[in-house]
């Protein structure tokens, strides 16, 4: 998208809220639309991640519709893990992803965590660039991380 096209995109304010039980079907549908079948989570997998004891989910809304979400967990005392961040295609490059990442990073910082990490598909250059701009660095390549042998990058950021 060129700079002139970006100025034509109408920025509509989004708000973040906590997960509601009625959101799961919508979040699962968004995840299926955002990622290739070999990467997207099933509804059951997503429910499992959301339901973990140390997990937290934020939902982004605009015009009373869910436009994105992020699921994170605290798997270790000093560490946060972003399980998935999803933004509806029509809402990308409007600050929704940054807003969701800000929420996770603020939560992790408030808990006194020192490191946050995530995995992203090796061929998802847009996501890699987004994370790099936020201070994440590639730690390693995870071979066959996703179904059907797709590789992922492990990326991390010190808080």
How would you describe the overall organization of this protein?
With 159 residues, the chain is of the alpha+beta class. It has a single domain (13-158), classed as Gcn5-related N-acetyltransferase (GNAT) (Aminopeptidase). It contains 5 helices and 7 strands; from the N terminus they run H-E-H-H-E-E-E-H-E-H-E-E. The protein has a 7-stranded mixed β-sheet with strand order 1-2-3-4-5-7-6. Helix 4 links the parallel strand 4 and strand 5. The N and C termini lie far apart (31 Å). Residues 1-8 have low confidence and may be disordered.
CATH hierarchy class name: Alpha Beta
Largest sheet descriptor: 7 strands, mixed
How many domain regions?
1
**What CATH architecture would you give?**
3-Layer(aba) Sandwich
Strands of the largest sheet, in order across it? Answer: 1-2-3-4-5-7-6
Determine the mean pLDDT. Answer: 91
Question: Could you say which structural class the secondary elements and strand pairing correspond to?
Answer: alpha+beta
Number of strands: 7
- Proportion of residues in β-strands: 25-35%
Radius of gyration: 15 Å
- Please mark out the parts with pLDDT under 50 across 5 or more consecutive residues, or reply none: 1-8
Cα separation of the termini: 31 Å
